[in-house]
Amino acid sequence: NAGVTQTPKFRVLKTGQSMTLLCAQDMNHEYMYWYRQDPGMGLRLIHYSVGEGTTAKGEVPDGYNVSRLKKQNFLLGLESAAPSQTSVYFCASSYPRTGSATNYGYTFGSGTRLTVV
Amino acid sequence: GNSVTQMEGPVTLSEEAFLTINCTYTATGYPSLFWYVQYPGEGLQLLLKATKADDKGSNKGFEATYRKETTSFHLEKGSVQVSDSAVYFCALTGTGYSTLTFGKGTMLLVSP
Question: Of A30, A59, A66, B97, most Cβ neighbours within 10 A?
Answer without folding.
Answer: A66
